[in-house]
């Protein structure tokens, strides 16, 4: 838990772009473009989503779409969690999710990983940020992000998506020295990638831990927490808000609170009061509406928004979905959600 949390009224006061909080800020999780017709048209035009990620002009256009079409209060960089893994010497394709040609399974595999220099190996990400920041209104920040070392490790070792990512969990127990070595390498990668994004204009940073829910609280404390703390300490001098999102991580809230982030982002399964209790009275939370509410009618959406805002009870909070959008969620409902949060929070 940070000793001096950033109050919501100054959430971006130390960043290059400020955020007005005359109303509750509304951010939408990654993949907001899925519900937008212009994004779907672009996606249909290109054979691989990788083209969209790696072409700065296209990635910038997609990053800006939710600002223009949904009136959310922050933009989030259009890239992918696995983006920085390719330059390690771990090529992947999408089918439809990332599939790695050669999973990393041994100590030798880990030691053979290449060093990554973001401004050389990931320059298209920096160019995307440059283009976005030229177009964003001055009061709208851009959120940069990265996958956590644990989540990146699960993809590298498993080689593809999995329900339980048992391959890396097995490595933790059967070959802990190699598992720690991989976590160390990925921690350095995450730090350099996040710092690179801020150098190009990102005004906040979020670490997504989308695989973390498969771990026990004990394994989180001993195997993941030290690396998260290292990341947050290493980027503290950047003076931008640091956000941590542990998907399905309600069973280790007390440890997530020790990660060093300024803001804890929670999913819909995590109780808001429990999260505030774990983080401290002055903590800032982000979340945590169940995204499937967006399949309902407007009255149901209004009730859900009202409940969330009532649950927060005026405490520091950024309204957000508890995870990403699905392609078949009605665009009109997403736009209505954003407008309702703004309307109700001003009453």
CATH fold title? TIM Barrel
Radius of gyration based on Cα positions: 19 Å
The ordered string of helix (H) and strand (E) elements is HHHEEEHHHEHHHEHEHEHEHEH
Between the first and last Cα atoms, what is the distance in angstroms?
A: 31 Å
Instruction: Look at the structure and give the mean pLDDT.
Output: 91
Query: Ranges with pLDDT <50 over ≥5 residues?
Result: 1-22
Q: What's the domain count?
A: 1
Account of the 3D structure:
Helix 3 runs parallel beside helix 6 (123-135) and helix 7 crosses helix 9 (176-199). The chain has 14 helices and 9 strands. It is globular and about 60 Å long. The protein is α/β, with parallel strands linked by helices and 347 residues long. The protein has a single domain (8-345), classed as TIM Barrel (Alpha-Beta Barrel). The strands form 2 sheets. It has a 7-stranded parallel β-sheet with strand order 1-4-5-6-7-8-9. The chain has helices spanning 37-45, 49-54, 56-70, 107-111, 118-121, 123-135, 149-158, 166-174, 176-199, 217-234, 253-256, 272-279, 298-312, 331-345, and strands at residues 75-76, 92-94, 98-100, 142-147, 204-209, 242-246, 263-265, 284-289, 317-321.
């Amino acid at each position: 838990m940070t000793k001096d949390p950033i109050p919501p009224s100054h959430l971006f006061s130390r960043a290059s772009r400020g955020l007005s909080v005359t109303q509750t800020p509304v951010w939408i999780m990654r993949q907001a473009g899925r519900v937008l017709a212009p994004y779907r048209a672009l996606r249909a035009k290109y054979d691989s989503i990788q083209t969209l990620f790696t072409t700065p002009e296209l990635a910038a256009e997609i990053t800006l779409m939710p600002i223009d079409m949904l009136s959310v209060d922050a933009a989030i960089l259009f890239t992918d969690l696995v983006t920085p893994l390719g330059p390690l010497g771990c090529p992947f394709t999408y089918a439809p999710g990332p599939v790695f040609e050669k999973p990393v399974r041994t100590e030798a595999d880990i030691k053979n990983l290449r060093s990554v220099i973001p401004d050389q190996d990931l320059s298209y990400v920096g160019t995307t940020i440059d283009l976005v920041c030229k177009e964003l209104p001055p009061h709208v920040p851009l959120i940069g992000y990265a996958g956590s070392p644990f989540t990146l490790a699960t993809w590298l070792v498993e080689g593809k998506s999995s329900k339980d990512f048992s391959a890396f969990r097995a490595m933790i127990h059967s070959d802990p020295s190699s598992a720690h070595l991989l976590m160390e390498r990925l921690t350095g990668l995450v730090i350099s990638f996040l710092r690179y994004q801020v150098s190009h204009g990102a005004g906040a940073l979020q670490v997504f831990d989308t695989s973390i829910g498969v771990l026990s609280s004990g394994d989180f404390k001993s195997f993941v927490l030290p690396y998260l703390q290292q990341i947050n300490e290493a980027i503290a001098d950047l003076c931008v808000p640091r956000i941590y999102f542990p998907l399905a991580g309600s069973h280790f809230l007390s440890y997530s609170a020790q990660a060093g982030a300024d803001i804890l982002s929670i999913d819909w399964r995590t109780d808001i009061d429990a999260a505030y209790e774990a983080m401290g009275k002055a903590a800032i939370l982000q979340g945590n509406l169940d995204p499937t509410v967006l399949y309902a009618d407007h009255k149901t959406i209004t009730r859900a928004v009202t409940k969330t805002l009532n649950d927060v009870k005026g405490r520091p909070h950024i309204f957000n979905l508890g995870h990403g959008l699905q392609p078949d969620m009605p665009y009109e409902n997403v736009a209505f959600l954003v407008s309702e949060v703004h309307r109700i929070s001003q009453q």
